[in-house]
Amino acid sequence: MQAIDLSHPVRTGMQVFPGDPSVEFRSAATVAADGFAVAQLHLGSHSGTHLDAPLHTVQGGAAVDAMPLEALMGPARIVSLPEPSVNTVLGWQDVSGQLENLLPGTIVLFSTGWSRHFDTPVYLEHPTFDTEIAERLVAAGVRLVGVDILNPDPTPGPAAPGHAQGETFLPFHDVFLGSGGGIVENLTNLGAVPWADPWFSALPLRLEGLDGSPVRAVAFRP
Ligand SMILES: [Zn+2]
């Protein structure tokens, strides 16, 4: 079996959503001093390549440990949207041609190439996805969407035109997570997947009652 890693390395000081907890690894024990190595991890639940559970934006929504595993792995469709410019709003007409004949339950992965800007300020000026895309995917029976950007909605701050600094504005999240689905953010390397319709897996840690979790996202061919 061939597998392609679609995850960013998780490491101290990596870029996170503005205002989220920083990622810091510390040594809690070392082989030299203790005979074994143990690390202490400090990070937010949305660090690096991660899964948003419904609970992220929906009061009383499902947590990562309550999401069915079957929805988080399976046949996927990669939608290629190469080189959108800064703050582009992608609409249904930009993606619909690559979403024909979608079977219910297919995982949809949007590849913009934006992941090459990870860890730079430009990464925050990512393209965004119109709410109609979320509505149409939900209607088609899609339960999991992945993006190679920080956020399918505008990220608050100077990078989000038309929205005040710090304003939270999450219409894509509200529709897609509101349907009980999940969103995988900060994917990378989607352009390296050689198969038109790969399988995809993004399993969260079984973090009880939490709104999100880092994942090891993988494309593979069974
Ligand atoms: Zn998230």
Automatic annotation (TrEMBL):
Protein name stated in the entry: Cyclase family protein
Lineage top rank: taxon: Bacteria
InterPro entries, per database record: KFase/CYL, KFase_sf
Organism: Arthrobacter jinronghuae
